[in-house]
Amino acid sequence: MLQNKYSFNQSSAELVISGLPDYSNNDNKDNISIISSWKLSIINQPEIEGSIDHLKSVIKAFYKCAALSLLDREEKIESELIDLNLDESGSYRIILKSTKPEVKPLKLKIGYAEFSDIINCFDQLKNFNEIKIDFNELLPNIRKESFISFDRNRLSNTIFPPLIALLSISFFTFIGFYFFENKDSRNKNISIISNSSNIVIKIK
Asked: I need a surface site. Which of 52, 65, 112, 197 has the fewest CB within 10 A?
């Protein structure tokens, strides 16, 4: 049976996936529900390939690393099949582990541009309907507190001064309107009537 093969490219990276449709689930002949092989090529790096479990682990690790970077959080990403961490120089260190004891781990070091290109390839795969992969189990499970966490000192330095200034402006504006309205009211209550040489001032 002829396998289907699809590739996803972005500058320095290319992801190629081959497989078969699952006719028991009424798949179209162009679909891939059974992935038989995959290969990730990165410029100036060895090719990465393995089982479907390796592919899922790689995708999950890259997405989690990207999410932590956006949250400005540092956290070690380690699993049975891949370790992925950002080092002090700003490069991404990847350790790919084989399920076979006699095969040594593959170590890679890539830059931000290559990392972004790989994420882009995974995004293309995610939005490609012909290949059936459940991305719900691959997207990072970041705790909700992470999105609303804050530094109290930063909050004090950035939020409180403008807030105090705004309250001060509002206070003085209120005082100004209060005195202006009272003065205007007093002026309205005073009328001046002139009859020839007599001047009468009436206060209502």
From this structure: 197
Q: Quick one: 51 and 125 in the same domain? A: yes
Tokens, residue 128: 């490609």
* 4 Ramachandran zone, left/alpha/beta (phi>0; psi -120 to 50): beta
The answer to whether the CB of 36 falls within 8 A of the CB of 18 is: yes
Task: Based on the fold, state whether residues 105 and 178 are members of the same structural domain.
Answer: no
| Encoded amino acid at 104, one letter | K
For 189, the domain range is: 154-203
For 92, residues 6+ apart whose C-beta sits below 8 A from its C-beta are 65, 84, 85, 86, 109, 110, 111, 112, 114, 115
- Are 130 and 185 in a shared domain? no
In percent, the amount of the chain with pLDDT more than 70 equals 69
- What's the full length of the chain, in residues? 204
Q: Is residue 149 part of a domain?
A: no
The helix/strand count (H/E) of the chain reads as 5, 10
Digit-coded pLDDT (tens) for 74-121:
888 999 999 999 888 889 999 999 988 899 999 999 999 999 999 999
The dihedrals phi and psi of 179, each to the nearest 5 degrees, come to -70, -35
For residue 46, give the DSSP letter: -
**pTM given for the model:** 0.69
CB 7, CB 13: distance < 8 Å: no
Q: Which amino acid is at 195?
A: N
